[in-house]
Amino acid sequence: MHIESPKKTVNKSSKDIFEFLIDIKNFESLMPDNIAKFEVLSEDKFLFALKGMPEIVLKLKETIPYEKVILGAASDKLPFTLTADIVSTDESTSEVVLNFEGEFNAMMAMMIKAPITNFIGTLSDKLTNI
Known about the structure:
Alpha-D-Glucose-1,6-Bisphosphate, Chain A, domain 4, eight-stranded antiparallel sheet, 43% strand, 2 helices, alpha+beta, 24% helix, 8 strands
């Protein structure tokens, strides 16, 4: 399953956005209003839960300085990645697209598609305000 956020323009350099995203604790400020739990587990891992959804642990998997930040599920039960692609448009502005990639059976995909799409959209929207 692939879900892509709309491209968002952020009034920050690609370096500033990259450094914001690799600091795991900053994800709390990007979470939707219906967050039930957020906990930093280590410098590269955090746990969150939205109301009515199970807890999910995300781990920083890969980074390409100033271009890409990849987070992945720490558990193999729900294998997925969340990738932030950062493109600098000038010294103080960048474009960011969030991509969700997961392997789910058809039933699970049907159940989680709308909540994940909303979640990715909220992260993307809030990223414009960092």
